[in-house]
Design brief:
Elements lengths: L15 H24 L16 H4 L5 E4 L7 E6 L4 H17 L5 E6 L8 H12 L4 H10 L1 H5 L11 H14 L4 H7 L3 H16 L7 E4 L2 E2 L9 H17 L1
Parallel strand pairs: 2-3
Antiparallel strand pairs: 1-3, 2-4, 4-5
Helix pairs in contact: 3-10, 4-5, 4-7, 4-9
Keywords: Disulfide bond, Membrane, Oxidoreductase, Redox-active center, Signal, Transmembrane, Transmembrane helix
Family: Belongs to the thioredoxin family. DsbA subfamily.
GO molecular function: oxidoreductase activity
Length: 250
């Protein structure tokens, strides 16, 4: 054994738990750093400047899916997302689930598809969500995809995204069965012209809205940008909810 070997590895190498913990921590640091850099426009220092408003008809279409709805539509949040995007999953875990629970009936939260080319299974996941939507179960599939993110979206090393289409398809059908879909119809709809047209329309609207990466969120038409003092997901959630509450108070 070399004299300078890390004591953690002494006695047979790193344990599986230690390795997984290290991977999770590293991924979390990279993800939060990437999210904040992207949403601050590359660190240009102008995050305090108000973002221009995007027309409501670009951000939401009549067939867009809403996780929650408010009767007055006073505040509408729109998220362009990529189901395989690690940052989108982190937003879901740290922010979106809380909003869906705590702001039900108070705001409208709309989700739009924006699968990125660098994520091999992103479009397949979007197809699964839209196919479930044709049976009235979009929200259930949305949650199934994010709640089981590690199972289908990540490679075995836990640090890279997966490209295993066969595994993902099998899991998506499993989720479809679990949420009560007609699996035969789901299988037929997944790659249908209707589903693909819906995803393409979402991407086109995202491009019009200036979306360049995911997640991209808009509050009443204005793109959300974290404050310069935001360094953690907890701070990110507090910052976003502060802006949301400010809109509700108007």
């Amino acid at each position: 054994m070399p004299k300078n070997q890390n004591p953690v590895t002494r006695g047979g190498g790193l344990s599986v738990n230690v390795v997984l913990t290290i991977v999770v921590v590293v991924v979390a640091v990279v993800v939060i750093g990437g999210i904040l850099l992207f949403n601050r426009g590359g660190g240009s220092g102008d995050s305090a400047a108000p973002a221009p408003a995007v027309p409501a008809e670009v951000l939401r279409k009549p067939d867009s899916h809403a996780l929650i709805d408010s009767p007055d539509n006073k505040v509408t949040v729109v998220e362009f997302l990529d189901y395989q995007c690690p940052a989108c999953h982190s937003y879901y875990t740290a922010l979106t689930k809380q909003i869906e629970k705590d702001y039900a009936g108070r705001i409208t939260f709309v989700t739009r598809n924006f699968p990125l080319q660098g994520h091999p299974l992103a479009r397949s996941a979007a197809q699964a969500a839209e196919a479930a939507g044709l049976q009235g179960k979009y929200k259930e599939m949305y949650h199934a995809l994010y709640d089981n993110y590690e199972a289908w979206a990540l490679a075995p090393d836990g640090a890279n995204v997966s490209s295993d289409t066969a595994k993902a398809s099998a899991l998506f059908e499993q989720y479809a069965q679990q949420i009560g879909l007609d699996v035969a119809k789901f299988r037929q709809d997944v790659n249908s012209p209707q589903v693909n047209a819906k995803i393409d329309a979402d991407v086109a609207d995202g491009n019009l809205a200036g979306v360049r990466g995911t997640p991209s969120l808009f509050i009443n038409g204005r793109k959300y940008q974290p404050g310069d003092d935001v360094q953690t997901f907890r701070q990110l959630a507090d910052d976003f909810l502060g802006k949301l509450n400010a809109e509700l108070a108007k």
